[in-house]
Write a structure and sequence with these properties.
mainly alpha; Formate dehydrogenase/DMSO reductase fold; two-stranded antiparallel ribbon; 2 strands; globular
């Protein structure tokens, strides 16, 4: 197999991992106003992702590093042309991470509400903008002969891209609600299941419209099959959630996101960043990749370390597999013990 094509697939795998894993992180963060009725509820929600949220974000770092090494031309065009959008994502991720670490440092409710708002915003902005970015990459953007992006930020906010952003926003939100129902117990578990049912209906409608648009614009048999499988997985996840099978529902929602991202990479192939309206300026797998030597070295590194990363991440999820309950949340202000007589 051509190593450039192989690394196109590996980068797709990294982004699938990132969207599946950090996707439910974003969903949990966005669910705070809907499921967090009091401080204990909010702490339960945050604790469901507390041990894993930063580990999930390493998929983005690894994916970005692999993109830089394997396809430097793609990396340069993407990060320069989409600079403002990616900067907004970065700022949102920083605010979100800071909020997880600092919201519990002071007891005042105002202090915690401000950081909770940052968690919600820091989750919703990337959930929306990642969809906008990938939809634009698949649709194509204005590139000149030097592969520089010649449009503006507002050119990226077109109908197809905004629909893509709304799709990822709703999928991640539903993914997070299902995860909460899987990881909690009692009343919050029931409310999370109901929330996932309601948001799932919107996700099905919006995702169907986006995938249909994508298939019509970039038709291939492989794309059609992946889109249909993603649609079936999404509907199956919704039905299973309705029946209270949270584990299976979460698995099918993860499959939905994985198949949807795979469909986008299939629609993109063999380009990595199409140029419109001048296709001759497009970046392709062939003209954007590194040398054969670089790709060979990267392949051996991936063969050695990727299985170790997967094993470590799987072990982490196994260790923290138990449900989080309100009874496990210690009181912020315990009553003082009576003095000894």
């Amino acid at each position: 197999m051509d190593l450039a094509v192989l690394w196109f697939g590996i980068i797709g795998f990294f982004f699938i991992g990132y969207f599946v894993l950090d996707g439910f992180d974003f969903g949990v963060g966005m669910s705070l106003p809907f499921l967090g009725r009091d401080e204990t509820d909010r702490r339960v929600l945050i604790n469901t992702i507390g041990p894993v949220w930063d580990l999930n974000e390493t998929w983005l770092i690894v994916g970005g590093a692999a993109l830089f090494a394997a396809f430097p031309e793609w990396y340069a065009t993407l990060f320069s042309g989409f600079y403002l959008a990616l900067l907004l994502i970065l700022i949102a991720l920083i605010l979100r991470g800071v909020s997880f670490e600092y919201r519990h440092q002071r007891p005042e409710s105002t202090w915690k509400r401000r950081f909770d708002a940052m968690i919600v915003i820091g989750s919703a902005v990337p959930a929306l903008l990642w969809g906008v970015a990938f939809a634009n990459i698949v649709q194509g953007v204005a590139l000149n002969a030097h592969h520089d992006y010649t449009g503006t930020l507002f050119d990226l906010l077109n109908g197809y891209a905004l629909l893509g952003g709304l799709t990822t926003l709703l999928l991640f939100f539903t993914h997070g609600a299902v995860f909460v129902s899987l990881k909690t117990d009692g009343d919050i578990r029931k409310r999370a299941r109901r929330l996932a049912t309601r948001s799932g209906v919107l996700a099905i409608v919006v995702a169907a419209a986006f995938l249909t648009w994508t298939v019509i614009a970039h038709f291939s048999v492989a794309l059609l099959v992946l889109a249909l499988l993603a649609a079936v997985a999404l509907v199956t996840s919704w039905v299973l959630n309705l029946r209270g099978a949270e584990g299976w529902s979460f698995g099918f929602m993860a499959a939905t996101i994985a198949l949807a991202v795979a469909a986008l990479f299939t629609a993109l192939f063999p380009n990595v960043m199409p140029s419109v309206p001048n296709p001759e300026n497009s970046l392709t797998i062939a003209n954007a990749s590194s040398s054969e030597t670089t790709l060979t070295i990267m392949t051996w590194v991936a063969v050695i370390f990727l299985p170790l990363i997967l094993l470590y991440q799987g072990f982490t999820y196994w260790v923290f597999r138990k449900r989080v309950t309100r009874a496990q949340i210690p009181d912020d202000h315990p009553e003082p013990e009576p003095a000894a007589v």
